[in-house]
Amino acid sequence: MPELPEVETVCRGLEPVLASHVIAKAVLHSDGLRKPFEKGLAKALAGRTVARIARRAKYILVYLDNSKILVLHLGMSGRILIEAKGYKPQKHDHLTMVLDDGRVVVFNDPRRFGMAFMVDEAGLENDPAFRELGPEPLSNQFSGPVLAAGLSEKRTPVKVALLDQHVVAGIGNIYASEALFLAGIDPQRTAGSLSRPETETLAKAIRSVLTKAIKAGGSSLKDYRKVSGELGYFQHHFTVYGRDGQACPGCTCDISKTGGILKIPQAGRSTFYCPRKQA
DNA sequence: CCTTGAACCTGCGGGC
DNA sequence: TGCCCGCAGGTTCAAG
Fold it and tell me: Which of A58, A112, A159, A277 does the annotation list as catalytic?
């Protein structure tokens, strides 16, 4: 679920709930996620006021009033829920924060690939998790030439390169396939073999795909919150991801002969593409 | 250095 | 109905 657009949607939903609010109490309900929780994490949060929420790559940054940041990563299965006063922790809840208005922010993650840790605001860019991150694809730090520079020396398939957070930050397995489809580029192409026009097209496709997904998330966020406190969960309509065997939009060929959209393994993960549009 | 593959976890759906 | 298998949107570490 959580790639850049989903994380961005969660951040936008979290902002009005947390910003300017006091974390009255924080409670850990497990030993940790990927790594054990730092000693004193709950204590470090208690009594702090949240200044603002931001996102970097797939990380949620909760800026506190003491120049420290609570960093959250949703991993594969992490969710943030906003629950009403009196909420009782449930299965796979790892961290809950009771706010000054009684509401409870819940970090739930069944697979425990997520993360939650503190970092000093001043040291954010030097933290191992952030130091080597590539450019934000929706910022003006990102462009065709920047993408070209990131891909040029790579011998991996371009799809695999897009998952490398050093090249560009925030793209995951879904949007890598989606962007390459939109750009009309074969995911099996060697990253370094792309021409300048192709990297330009791909950079634009990345921006387009992510922007549209955020827009979809933003609009569905409102609706979803009417029935549940979960932030950023919504059904996307993907063009190729998860649609193997189905017809590719724009293709007029006979699926019974072509097989439609293909699913292939790359670097241990599934890639979806149309061999006719992405040749 | 670069690249690949496995590991980390739980839950779910499909096939038998 | 139940069991077993493969698979899942991410990151990191070891080994080649």
Answer: A58
